[in-house]
Amino acid sequence: MVRTVQNLSNLPTQRILDRILQLQKINRHEHLHLASAILANQRLTPEERRQINQIFDHIQSGQIKLVDEGFSPA
């Protein structure tokens, strides 16, 4: 199932974070959702902010893979 950015943004951020941390991979839509949440100063709990920062750190270190799965360019 291909999700659009609009559909993904309706999912609770914590559910997305849990999935990424469990599977150790993130697709481009999820990456965009998390980056937007941080940059837009969206209402995030301190724990969500910590997890998002941890995920970005893990992407840089290769511990979490950034995949194109579910990505459909416009």
Q: What fraction strand?
A: 5-15%
Q: DSSP helix count? A: 4
Largest sheet features: 2 strands, parallel
Largest beta sheet: what is the strand line-up? 1-2
Q: Give the tally of structural domains.
A: 1
- Tell me the quaternary state: single chain
Description:
With 74 residues, this protein is mainly alpha-helical. The protein has one domain. Helices cover 58% and strands 8% of the residues. The chain has 4 helices and 2 strands; from the N terminus they run ααβααβ. Strands 1-2 form a two-stranded parallel ribbon. Helix 2 (13-23) packs parallel to helix 4 (46-61). The longest helix is centred in the C-terminal third of the chain and has 16 residues, at 46-61. Mean pLDDT is 82; it is low at 1-10.
Identify the notable features of this structure and list them briefly:
two-stranded parallel ribbon; 2 strands; 74 residues; globular; 58% helix; 4 helices
How would you summarize this macromolecular structure in one to three sentences?
By secondary structure, the chain is mainly alpha-helical. Helix content is 58%, strand content 8%.
Task: Summarize the topology.
Layout: H1 5-8, H2 13-23, E1 25-27, H3 28-39, H4 46-61, E2 65-67
Parallel strand pairs: 1-2
